[in-house]
Amino acid sequence: MVTAETILERTHAYAISTINENGFPKTLILQSIMSRFSFVTLYFYLDKNTDIVKDIQANPKATIACYAEFDAGYVTTLNLKGTFTLVELDDITNLSEDYKRYDSNLSYENPCILLFETLSFDIERLKKYRGT
């Protein structure tokens, strides 16, 4: 059975969509989640100077979308709807090893941790385009 958990375990990219100051969606594709606890709580490591972080500070509502392939000819998408919170680096003691790993690899000048809390989700299975 395909669940939110199994999709997150198999995905290779996460699309974070926020609403910008003009009311339009802004999407950022990330390769990985810094840390997660089920599909309910996810942590991301970003540069505080990115547009997406500024959008989140103005409006914390967001969607995270990803997909995985389980059956030949189909993709299964997961949409997590929820809110982001900017976490102070001093408050991440339970994530310190994950943070150190990401920080040493990415070395942002102005790093921040974003906590995403899922409020609802949906899963949809779609036929995969095979082209000719």
UniProtKB/TrEMBL annotation:
Show the SUPFAM superfamilies listed in the entry.
Answer: FMN-binding split barrel
Say which domain of life the source belongs to.
Bacteria
For this entry, the protein name equals Uncharacterized protein
Source organism: Enterococcus ureilyticus
